[in-house]
Write a structure and sequence with these properties.
The protein has 461 residues and is α/β, with parallel strands linked by helices. It has helices at residues 44-48, 53-60, 71-80, 89-95, 116-128, 142-154, 164-169, 171-179, 193-201, 209-221, 235-253, 270-284, 302-305, 348-355, 366-380, 386-405, 423-431, 441-448; strands at 7-8, 18-20, 34-35, 40-41, 66-68, 85-87, 100-105, 133-138, 157-163, 183-187, 226-228, 261-265, 291-297, 307-312, 321-326, 360-364, 410-415. The structure holds pyridoxal-5'-phosphate.
Length: 461
């Protein structure tokens, strides 16, 4: 038996007091947001109409490596953190691999995912600014739940635009959000200009994240003392999620373990960016050789098959343009069960890292993801979220590769959440009726055709 325990917990004293800003260590910064009207970089004032002031400061900060976590947020974190870092002894035994496998489990709170890490911070900053209400979108519902919890805690009103198919597929998720006092509006809705336009163009559509974002942004911009809050993609969201990587690193350091490979699922890139940030910081300073792998669904392959161009963050083309790997803001992903990974774009930080060769990416089909999920549930006990199971599938592949080559890699992956609200997906898998959707080149081209043909994209398209 090794001397690493099954679970490594941190004491309150060992919990991070600072977030880690990887941009301060990156050799190349991602290009700035562009205002689509002027084709010039967005000013702070452009962003202040939409986002909270403190979040914008963090968004634009490229120099401070460490950013202090306010006392009030650290207090909230204590409610559900530290999260356990687990040595997956039982999974290792099942796979009969020489690899060491570790996972960081973020599903131990009512929202069931890592999203509460940023919700806690963003709701706090909205309250601190004296705002009355905030708006957001939610796909699978984890983010809406997390933000509803944080809004209740700090005493803010919240409108959640929930992708219509999710609201219908997951009535229980919707009820949790309502229980915390937030309004849930299925999107597209008749309550906004953007929603009405999309309903007219695509009657009967089940909606998409991009569309729900348009509605939430419009609501924030047309309501007094209200701002919009986003659960992924943006740099400040990744920053808040670095508590995942920092806790993991502190826990592993206690046992002298440096991972050879860090794996995470990528939707908008926030949990992955937050998990890898401190390990990548070491690599960028020449202190380690750690490799990084992002895992996405084959049905929505923004990194592995997308284009690195400027694109809108929403489908109604109302947000600033971000330089990122994208399938096109009009890309409508097929009905995959990993709702949290169905986003056309990708975090600009993760996109830049991928472009510069600091990480790899792989796309996995649904059935393979659920095979991994079931294998994991049986030996490690936790019923994983479909999103998280993308990381499990890649970790299993890496461990089996170690078995073939005899190499004893140390693998760390992010287990972002639980699958309790995804039982209809498990039912399909158990019934053998789950389909694998892989878009054709023609499907992708339809999405690429929606990328704006504007000046900043001239040399890129
Ligand atoms: C939202 C979500 C994701 C994907 O979001 P990222 O911003 O890419 O981290 C992954 N797993 C779970 C459980 C989620 O809820």
């Amino acid at each position: 038996m090794e001397n690493v325990p099954y679970k490594i917990y941190l004491t309150e004293e060992e919990m991070p007091k600072y977030w880690y800003n990887i941009k301060a260590r990156m050799k190349t910064q991602h290009p700035p947001f562009i205002n689509p009207a002027t084709q010039k970089p967005c000013s702070k004032e452009d962003l202040q109409a939409v986002f909270c002031n403190d979040c914008i400061e963090q968004e634009l900060n490229e120099t401070d490596e460490w950013i202090e976590i306010p006392e009030e947020i650290r207090a909230f974190y204590k409610m559900f953190r530290p999260s356990p870092l687990v040595r997956a002894y039982f999974l290792e035994r099942t796979l009969d691999t020489p690899a060491e496998i570790y996972y960081k489990f973020e599903g131990n709170n009512t929202s069931g995912s890592h999203k509460l890490n940023s919700a806690a911070a963003q709701a706090y900053y909205a309250k601190k600014q004296g705002l009355k209400s905030i708006t957001t979108e939610t796909g699978a519902g984890q983010w809406g739940t997390a933000l509803a919890m944080a809004s209740a805690f700090y005493g803010l009103e919240l409108d959640v635009y929930m992708v219509k198919v999710s609201a219908e597929q997951k009535p229980h998720r919707k009820e949790v959000i309502r229980t915390y006092g937030a309004n849930v509006i299925p999107s597209p809705s008749e309550t906004t200009e953007a929603g009405r336009k999309i309903l007219k163009e695509y009657p009967g559509t089940g909606g998409s994240l991009g569309c729900a974002i348009s509605e939430a942004v419009e609501k924030a911009c047309t309501t007094q003392s209200c701002r919009y809050v986003l659960g992924s993609v943006l740099d400040h969201v990744l920053l808040h999620q670095t508590v995942i990587g920092l806790e993991s690193k502190t826990a592993l350091d206690k046992f002298g373990v440096t991972p050879d490979l860090v794996i995470g699922c990528v939707g908008g890139g926030s949990n992955y960016g937050g998990l890898i940030a401190p390990f990548l910081g070491d690599r960028l300073q020449g202190k380690s050789e750690t490799e990084f792998l992002g895992v996405e669904p084959a049905s929505c392959p923004s990194l592995t098959r997308g284009k690195f161009v400027y694109d809108f963050c929403d489908s109604a083309k109302t947000t600033p343009l971000a330089k990122m790997y994208t399938l096109g803001c009009g890309f409508m992903p097929s009905a995959s069960h990993a709702g949290g990974l169905r986003y056309h774009g990708m975090s600009p930080i993760v996109s830049q890292l991928y472009h510069d060769g600091y990480m790899n990416a792989v796309a996995v089909t649904q059935n393979k993801v659920f095979e991994a999920a079931v294998k994991f549930a049986k030996c490690e006990g936790i019923l994983p979220a479909p999103e998280s199971s993308h990381a499990i599938a890649a970790a299993i592949d890496a461990a089996l590769e170690c078995k073939r080559t005899g190499r004893k890699k140390r693998i760390l992956f992010g287990l972002t959440g639980t699958g309790y609200f995804d039982l209809s997906a498990y039912k399909q898998f158990n019934d053998g009726t789950m389909q694998d959707y892989v878009p054709t080149e023609a499907d992708l081209q339809k999405g690429f055709d929606t990328v704006p043909r504007c000046r900043v994209n001239e040399d890129l398209l």
